[in-house]
What we know:
Blueprint: H1 2-19, H2 29-106, H3 114-119, H4 125-192, H5 198-215, H6 223-234, E1 254-258, E2 268-271, E3 278-279, E4 285-292, E5 298-306, E6 309-318, E7 320-321, E8 343-344, E9 351-352, E10 364-369, H7 382-387, E11 389-390, E12 401-402
Antiparallel strand pairs: 1-2, 1-12, 2-10, 3-9, 4-5, 4-8, 5-6, 6-10, 7-9, 10-11
Helix pairs in contact: 2-4, 2-5
Amino acid sequence: MKKTVYIIIIAVVICSLIALPINTGAKTISQFEKEANELTKELEEKKSRLAKNEQEVKEIKQRISEIEAEIKQAEEDISTLEDEIVKSNEEIKEKSEESKKIIEYYQMANGENVYLEYAFGATSITDMIYRMSVVEQLTEYNDNIMKELEELIEKNKKQQTELKEKQDSLGDLQEELSSEQERIEDENAKIRVGMPTIEEQIKAAKANVKYYKDLGCGANEDIQACQYRIQQSSGSGGGSVPSANGFFRPMEYGYVTQYFGNNGHLGIDLGSSNKSITIYPIATGQLFFAGYDNAGAYIVILRHNVGGRYIYATYAHMRSFSSAIAPYVNGSYGTSASINGPIISSSTPIGNMGSTGNSSGPHLHLEISTCSWHKGGGCLSYNQYVSRVQNPRNYVNIPSSWNNR
Length: 405
């Protein structure tokens, strides 16, 4: 009999652990404050890096603009040289014809050396010297014309080659700079990805430390346990949060459009044939935040009491807030003054599905974490929040499609 009781007790404990996948992540105010200082330093470094990167990108864009102008000029120079080479070839042809006609003018017999015949046909020494001079000048003139024009063509061709090499070199440099610009912008995106602004995070970190100190938590007391204890016993800090008595789907009917963890997806995306379907809480909980994220998405965050610990459920991209939520809308997502608002039952609408913010179509993004980076949310930074995000299906039975809550 005793053995059976022990087995039942063990089974109940195991089931409760499975049912409540909460990462306790206990932190004291001392640890929290130390991490807040470290986070502030890290965020300031990121801010500095972003500013430096943005300056580099600005300079790269300026250099790319200059290179594009140089490439355009090189193309125009190449075109001009090509025209000059064509003209030079025509000039050589014309000069060759001219030289040929001059020589033919003095020809006296076909198939013989006309220069010698002309020179030795002189009637006197003076006449011969004159004739030799004419022959020499004609020959030199003809040779010089040919030499000058051929040199011009070679010079033009060489210059054309050099310009083409410069154009190719500029093109390679432009590609290299564009690649560097892409790298820097990618780095910036990774620094910023999915996070509130650095200023918002610093402000929230400082507000969090102050919040827990003002709440009266001991220096070495687990802040979440302290918050739960004080709120549940005295009603301060927003009043007691009733235990979540079961979890429900956030809308009457729908389907999954993107699962948790796909390409780093922090939540689960839910769609419906009704693109403005009513959204409900997944469980009874306390309104923690209502407002907008940096991209303009409508956001509602509810805090739920699960076995004496809090979880935070975020509902994003809604088209509107319900009448129960609208009076508590608190501005931008980064405000440090989070709401310790009213208790919202699982049957109370919180809004309607939409496509606000960074969204490609109407859907609900449902995200669950064991803390929130907002003031009083139990985690210090957005990165800590991300590290404690959990699959909503750990709490809510969400099949690929459904037609009831």
